[in-house]
Amino acid sequence: MVILSMQLLKSKPNTTLLQILIWLAVLLLTFFSMLPMEGAGKSVIYTVINTFFYAVIIYVNILLLYPVFYQKGRRIWYVLFVILFLIIAGMLRGYAIISAYNFFLPGKTRLITLGALLNYITAGILVYILSLVFRIAIEYFKLKQQTEEIMAQKSQAELNLLKSQVQPHFLFNTLNNIYYEAYKEAPKTAYLIERLSEIMRYFVDETIKEDVAINTEILFLENYISLEKIRIRHGVNIHFTKVYDPDIRIPPMLLMTFIENIFKHGIDKSSNQNQIDIALTQQNGCLYFKTNNKIYEVDPQKKLNGFGIANLKKRLTMLYGTNFELDTATNDKTFIAFLKIPVA
């Protein structure tokens, strides 16, 4: 049984099992050290009393005094409470042991005096020191277990990533083959296939990163716009102004919500006067993104400020705290969206 327990500890650290084994060892050692002098009955009583107070000293320190006072910087209070606690615990232990002695040997009564009780405090100090070692051991095994779990999760995540890349890369290769075939007969169709391939590659390779190059993000938006334009019967006039440092990086998919909303709500497929203005400029350490399009729906403000904008605001809050500006407004049947974020 003990061998099996040690194998379990080796394969996967378990602090509860470790503590049980330690206390079993303490009980056995204490019992057999007293057995030759005290006999079985008294040895059991003394072992239980001593081990109980050892456990109280250790767990009160590592579960209460240490985290509540020491770890929160109240070091002086910690020292004072430890001293007071050790005195009280030592005297109670002495009282319990002397009372048990008098019970078993009524003819050799020992007086319960302050001096006699104070003699039991020394052992409490040694146990207190051991409690610090005990806590370090527990934290070590917890840290080791957490590290192993993190490594296992990392390995599983890498495996899942490899699996998820099989199908997209197959599709990329297939799209490339279709592109070359289409280029011979229909160059315009080949161009759109290429845009779609680049969008898919962006989703697979770039969206998993914390930030991407601004040019990569702009290329993604332009590819998306190119594919959306083929669904518009009479075409659309898009004016995209770009003035920025190409070296800056931004979180991926941060600007997409505005562009997506334009094609959902800002296009009249029966009209030949669709006009969209997009401006991306950098100034004074900030990046400004603004879109401007006509409103064609009865209640556009309700739709345009739906889940897309709300989710974008939550993401911006997580990324920048309060250091950003996000605003949407209507002005004479025109919808305006504005975003300002800091850039390095």
TrEMBL record:
Gene3D superfamilies reported for this sequence: Histidine kinase-like ATPase, C-terminal domain
One Gene Ontology MF term? phosphorelay sensor kinase activity
Q: What is this protein called?
A: Signal transduction histidine kinase internal region domain-containing protein
Domain Signal transduction histidine kinase internal region, by residue range, is 157-233
Pfam families linked to this entry: His_kinase
Q: Which residues form a coiled coil?
A: none
Superkingdom of origin organism: Bacteria
What organism is this sequence from?
Pedobacter kyungheensis
